[in-house]
TrEMBL record:
Statement: the UniProt record of this protein carries the keyword Cell membrane: no
PANTHER family found in the cross-reference section: ENDO-1,4-BETA-GLUCANASE (PTHR22298)
Name the record gives this protein: Endoglucanase
InterPro entries, per the entry: 6-hairpin_glycosidase_sf, 6hp_glycosidase-like_sf, CBM_49, Glyco_hydro_9, Glyco_hydro_9_His_AS
Gene Ontology terms: biological process: cellulose catabolic process
One Gene Ontology molecular-function label: carbohydrate binding
Reaction(s) this enzyme catalyzes, per UniProt: Endohydrolysis of (1->4)-beta-D-glucosidic linkages in cellulose, lichenin and cereal beta-D-glucans
GO cellular component: extracellular region
Length: 634
């Protein structure tokens, strides 16, 4: 399978859609910034990997509905989610990691993604995964972790729309545990809850409920997932589950501020290796560096309290990872190719370059915000050096390398054309309406010497070898196969690197796409950055359920109709409720006015809010939801 990397380069001429079998011209590099184009294409790759019923506004016109009966034979709806790579298996562990990484990018680089007009596409990509995970989490201690198996799937070369291979679902439960997979899914849902919180708090809360349950399941019933789903072992062997448990707890602490989760990562720091493992890679299988950097943020913000000493140990390991990548670790460094690319493993090496570069970009910002330097054995390093190194990796991926080849398909003028990907290599259903069978696919399409008929934009291929060599051959799956887990870190990385370009809208190649109206996040591609509001109202007798019910565009600006259900969750009636509404930029209906600015009360027609009773207010504005808090009540 393959993993991704990212790079930044501008193209001297406007990129051309390559004709089938045509040799593209050598990539020309100029001073123009095209990270925005690279981000847009990366998100298109996730659209190409979708399983299930596709929305009518899809951008990848050679993909159609597929896998519409996944799970039905076992009485569960497992339709949706993502195909892993060039095949059609839905592997839970790398899929969850991909969603975690996209969510992390949306959290850290919200402003940059919004300025690039890509927040709608980013949240849509995340939601396609989280909707599937919630379907797959059918009971508190049950998680369906995979659909299809790699062995039977790899016997066939056919389009997803023509699949004839078994679509068996595989589940985890208390008797068949999988702490690594369940905890990674918990991390994905917790991170996604933060990504969605500014835009759809009810969906965010639902994600968090599932995340908490899955973490409890993962921690209570321990085991490696591939022991319970043996057919996954050949393709995604897990090295253990301690890192995923720490990873999930760290994300749940960030999403909830519940000290229980911080105490968990501190109490288990030694026994689970969080402060013991000094690592030089970050991937779908090894989360230690991610945990260490996430917890360093807690320390830098002065929120360590009684746990500060342990958090400093986590930070020391985060520093090790960063120093090893930038070659300042007293010889214990990450290997680089002659062209300067991070090199970890022969198979799908770009995934490691992409994930490491994302982490370095995040850590650079954490250190900068805290006005700290990175202490390496060989030097005191400014945070900017981490970002510069991440940029060098992204630029290599996008074409600044010895072969002048972009390893992101569809970016630039010179990129691989013989991608190891079933759907991209076979003519689409709209052109070739007859089904393509198992063997026919191999004989007619897999062995075809011509380039793929469909360009799978944004796919990060496996990439070059340790000597920067690359063979663009469909059978060379170690180098030409893309994966969702390898590509996902590029979302945040490309967004962050756009800051090198000044104007955030440079390089936009396609008009913004909004999310389908049926998922309550329509129009999010236009949303501005969220103000620093908190929607928490602890120890109050009412709850708030926020919903986005419609949107429209007027005068070039998108407006949203927000509906808030205010419910009395206490056992006593409320007669005098005062609410403060911050961040409101448009009109509001359903609340009574007061003489104080931004302060409202029960509407005139509602004198008493009975226990369990509720009422609704509605407001219209462009952008994120307003913050409603309780000032007083009787």
């Amino acid at each position: 399978m393959a993993k991704l990397g990212s790079s930044s380069h501008a193209i001297l001429a406007i990129f051309l859609v390559g004709l089938l079998g045509m040799e593209a011209a050598v990539l020309m590099v100029s001073s123009t910034c095209d990270y925005g184009i690279a981000l847009d294409k990366t998100l298109q790759f996730f659209e190409a990997q979708r399983s299930g019923k596709l929305p009518p506004n899809r951008r990848v016109n050679w993909r159609f509905d597929s896998g519409l009966k996944d799970g039905f034979l076992q009485g569960v709806n497992l339709v949706g989610g993502y195909y892993d790579a060039g095949d059609h298996v839905k592997f839970g562990l790398p899929m969850a990691f991909a969603v975690t990484m996209m969510s992390w990018g949306a959290i850290e680089f919200r402003t940059q993604i919004t300025n690039l007009n890509e927040m709608g596409n980013t949240l849509a990509a995340i939601k396609w995964g989280t909707d599937y995970f919630m379907k797959a989490h059918t009971q508190p201690n049950v998680l369906w972790g995979q659909v299809g198996d790699g062995v039977s799937d790899h016997y066939c070369w056919e389009r997803a729309e023509d699949m004839t291979t078994p679509r068996t679902g595989y589940r985890l439960d208390s008797e068949h545990p999988g702490s690594d997979l369940a905890a990674e899914t918990a991390a994905a849902l917790a991170a996604a809850s933060l990504a969605f919180k500014p835009y759809n708090s009810s969906y965010s809360n639902l994600l968090l409920i599932h995340a908490k349950q899955l973490f409890t399941f993962a921690d209570s019933f321990r085991g490696i997932y591939h022991d319970s789903i043996p057919c996954a072992k050949q393709f995604y062997t897990s090295s253990g589950y301690f890192d995923e448990l720490l990873w999930a707890a760290a994300w749940l602490y960030r999403a909830t501020d519940n000290e229980y989760y911080l105490k968990y990562v501190v109490n288990n720091a030694v026994s689970m290796g969080g402060t013991g493992w000094a690592v030089k890679e970050f991937s779908w299988d090894n989360k230690y560096a991610g945990v260490q950097i996430l917890l360093s943020k807690v320390l830098f913000e002065g929120r360590g309290g009684a746990y500060t000493a342990t958090l400093k140990q986590y930070q020391a390991k985060a520093d090790f990872f960063a120093c090893a990548n930038i070659q300042k670790n007293d010889g214990y460094n990450v290997q680089l190719t002659p062209g300067g690319l991070i090199y970890v493993r022969e198979w799908n090496n770009l995934q490691y370059a992409a994930s490491a570069s994302f982490l370095l970009a995040v850590y650079s910002d954490y250190l900068s915000a805290a006005h700290l330097q990175l202490h390496c054995p060989e030097a005191q390093v400014q945070p900017q050096a981490l970002l510069d190194f991440a940029k060098s990796q992204a630029d290599y991926i996008l074409g600044k390398n010895p072969r002048s080849l972009s390893y992101v398909v569809g970016f630039g003028q010179n990129y691989p054309t013989h991608i190891h990907h079933r759907g991209a290599s076979i003519a689409p259903v709209s052109v070739l309406k007859a089904a393509v069978g198992c063997v026919e696919g191999f004989e007619t399409w897999y062995r075809n010497a011509r380039g793929n008929p469909n360009i799978i934009h944004g796919a990060l291929v496996g990439g070059p070898n340790v000597y920067d060599g690359f063979n663009d051959d469909r059978s060379n799956y170690e180098q030409t196969e893309p994966t969702i887990s390898g590509t996902a870190p590029l979302v945040g990385l490309f967004a962050r690197l756009q800051s090198f370009c000044g104007n955030g809208n440079l390089g936009r190649s396609l008009p913004p796409r909004t999310i389908s109206p049926n998922n309550n996040t329509r129009g999010l591609a236009h949303l501005p950055a969220r103000p620093n509001f908190s929607n928490k109202t602890p120890d109050v007798p009412v709850s708030f359920l926020h919903l986005v019910t419609s949107s429209w565009t007027s005068g070039g600006k998108t407006f949203f109709r927000h509906k808030v259900v205010i419910k009395n969750v206490s056992p006593k009636p409320i007669t005098d409720l005062k609410l403060r509404v911050d961040g409101l930029t448009g009109p509001i209906w359903g609340l009574g006015l007061t003489e104080q600015q931004n302060t409202y009360q029960l509407p005139p027609w509602l004198k008493v809010l009975k226990p369990g009773g509720d009422f609704t207010c509605v407001y219209v504005q462009g952008g994120v939801q307003a913050k409603i808090t309780v000032l007083s009540y009787q």
